[in-house]
Amino acid sequence: MTRARMPRPHEVAAACRDPRLLRARRDRLGDLAWRAQGRCQTVDPETFFPAPSEPADVALALCRSCDVQGACLAWALDQGDCNGVWGGTTPRERRAMLVAWRSENTPEPAPAMP
């Protein structure tokens, strides 16, 4: 297994503007009820975890037509999951999105009291 490299700054900048990430921020849900509504419920879960040498085209096509794509991606980013296809993204795409996600969702430190 090869080790994943850290995304480069230009990849993170592109991820910040990615419509899928923007949708994930908008559709982020606190409960997991969205999971029962996913298109992935109708196919073999292995479809979403192809071997490194296999294309993820089938999974990506299913995700593109899914109503809960944003919530799914938000969940994967919250979990830090970089395996398989989640919310219409590949692991490589999510690594850059994860940097952007964490930087926006990290609370600012409280100012020091004088």
From TrEMBL:
GO terms for biological process: cell redox homeostasis; negative regulation of DNA-templated transcription. Binds 1 [4Fe-4S] cluster per subunit. Following nitrosylation of the [4Fe-4S] cluster binds 1 [4Fe-8(NO)] cluster per subunit. The keyword Amino-acid biosynthesis does not apply. The Fe-S cluster can be nitrosylated by nitric oxide (NO). The keyword Nucleus does not apply. It is found in: Cytoplasm. Coiled coil: none annotated. It comes from the Bacteria. GO terms for cellular component: cytoplasm. [4Fe-4S] cluster binds at residues 40, 63, 66, 72. GO terms for molecular function: 4 iron, 4 sulfur cluster binding; dinitrosyl-iron complex binding; DNA binding; metal ion binding; protein-disulfide reductase [NAD(P)H] activity. Acts as a transcriptional regulator. Probably redox-responsive. The apo- but not holo-form probably binds DNA. PANTHER family: TRANSCRIPTIONAL REGULATOR WHID-RELATED. This is Transcriptional regulator WhiB. It comes from Actinocatenispora comari. The lineage of its organism: Bacteria, Bacillati, Actinomycetota, Actinomycetes, Micromonosporales. The gene is whiB.
